Amino acid sequence: MRKARLIFLISALFLILFLASADNQMLIPLLPALSSDFGVAVEEVAWLFSLYAISASVFNLLLGPLTDRWGRVLFLKLGLIGFSVLAFATYRVTTYGDLLWLRAGTGIASGLLSTCTAGLVGDFFPYQRRGRIMGIVLSSYFVALILGLPLGTWIAEGWHWRTVFFCSGMLAAALALVSLGLPRQPDLKQSEGVQFKIYLDFLRERDTRSALVVSFVVAGGTLAFLVFLSNYLHQSFGLSPFEISWIFLTAGIAAFLGSLVSGWVSDRWSKRRVFLVFNSLFALALLGIQQFSWGAALMLVFFFISLCVSFRQTALHTLQTELVTEQRRGAYLALRNSASQLGIAVFVLVAGSLNRQLGFGGVTALVALSAVGTSLLFFKTIREPG
User: Fold this and answer.
1) E strands present in the chain
2) Which residues contact 246 (CB under 8 A, 6 or more apart)?
3) Domains and CATH numbers, the chain
4) Per-residue pLDDT tens for 169-210?
5) How many CB atoms lie within 10 A of CB 187?
6) How far apart are CA 17 and CA 353, in angstroms?
7) Are 324 and 208 in contact (CB under 8 A)?
8) How far, in Å, are 193, 271, 355 from residue 305 at the CA level?
9) Which end of the chain has fewer CB within 10 Å, C or N?
10) pTM surpassing 0.85?
C-alpha cells in the first residue's frame, strides 16, 4: 500500500473511532440541560447511558457475523450513515421517550463502528506490525476522553445542547463520504450463510474464551476506577471540579502518548509480554495510590497509571484480532465488545457498593486484585498468535 493511501486509511479509522468514542462522553455535561428541557430527573436522564450500552452490546452480537459475511467496509459505511441520521433526528427530538430510543439506536451504530474499525486494522495490516497501527487508531479513544467533555460543554454553552448532536451528525456525514475512498477489504473465503452458533465456538475454545474474560475485567475495572476517582479526590484533598479536570486532562495526554508508543513496543517485544507487564504494573500502582498525598508525586502516579492502561489496551486489542481467522474476526470482536460493556455494568455496580462500605480503598483493591487475576489467566491460557 502506498504511503499516501496508508495515511488516508489510518486517518479515516482514527476519526471514525473518535466519533464513536466521543459520542457518549459529550453527553455527560449535557445531563442538567436535558433534565431541565424534558422535565425529567437527572437520575432518569442517566438511563440514556445504560440503554446506549445495552443496545450496543446486544445488537452487535447480531451484526458481528454479518460483517464477516458481507465485509466490514460495507457495514462501516452503513454505520456512519445510520449514525448521521440518528444524530440529526436527536437534534430535532421533542420528547424524552423519543430521545431514549434515538440514543439506543446510536449505541448500535457506535458499537458497529468500533467493531468494524478494530476489525479493519486486523484485515489490512499483518500481525507483525499491527500493534503500531492499532496504537495510533486506539489513541483516538483518549483524544475523545480529553476533548469530549470540554467540547460538549463549550458547544452547549455557546449555542444549545441540540447543537452537539447537529455537529456530530455533520461529522458522521462527512466521514461517510470519506469512507467511499477506503480501499477494498481483502477478499475472504466466506462460508455460505451466517452462522450465529459461532459464538458457542468462541466460548468453547480456551484462548478466545479467556480473552473475553480479560476484556470483561479490563474494561469494567478501568471505568470503575475512573468513576469513583473524582469523588475520592474531592473528599480526600478538597479539590474543585476544575482542579480535578486537570488531572483527567493530564491522564488523557499520558494515555494518548502511550498509545502512540505502545504499538511499536508490542510489535518488537510481543503483545503478550506487554500486556502481562503493564497490567501487573497497573495493579501495583493502584494498590499504592492512597499512600500519596496531593502533589506532584500523586500526579506522576496518575500519569503512570494512564500509561499502563494505554499499553495494555493496545497490546490486548491487537492480540485479539489475531486469535481467530479473518472469516470470524467481526463476530469475535462484536462478542468482545459485548463482554466489555457487560464488564463495565457489573464492575461499576460492585465498586459502588464497595465505595459506600469501604471507601475508595475498596474500589482500588477490587480493580487491582482483578487485574492480578487477569494476568494469571492470561499467562496460563493465552498464547502469542503465530
Assistant:
1) none
2) none
3) 3-179 (1.20.1250.20), 198-381 (1.20.1250.20)
4) 999 999 999 999 888 776 555 544 456 678 888 999 999 999
5) 8
6) 32
7) yes
8) 45, 19, 20
9) C
10) no
